[in-house]
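To whoever is on call:

I kicked off a structure prediction for a single chain this morning and the downstream step that reads the tokens threw a length-mismatch warning. I double-checked the sequence; it's 127 residues and nothing unusual in it as far as I can see. Pasting both halves so you can look.
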Amino acid sequence: QVQLVESGGGLVQAGGSLRLSCAASGRTFSVGHMGWFRQTPGKEREFVSAIWWSGGNTYYSDYTGSVEGRFTISRDNAKNTVYLQMNSLKPEDTAVYYCALEPRAAGGRAPDDYDYWGQGTQVTVSS
């Protein structure tokens, strides 16, 4: 079994920064990739970014007004931890942020591509 624990959420003013962490424990994988998603009430879970454990390749949401250029995903393999550095935060970034693990290294932007999920951490950006 895999456990994912997010931390680092909180309340920040628009233009500010936060760094989210996702620590994996239990049965961890040397391959596969980790993703960050976010969700607001009444909306579907939205892909934010993902990174491969091996090689560190990354990709981001490609929606208009998305996060690329403001958010940076990274990992520390020795700590089994993935980070999401969020800069220039906007009120529309307010959401519960989840990390997720896809252990087959197939990639994916859909929640169904991922097998394991953390409990989420709230990010609130005030205007």
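Update from on-call: the warning came from a stale cache, not from the record. Cleared it. Sanity check on the structure: The mean pLDDT is 92.
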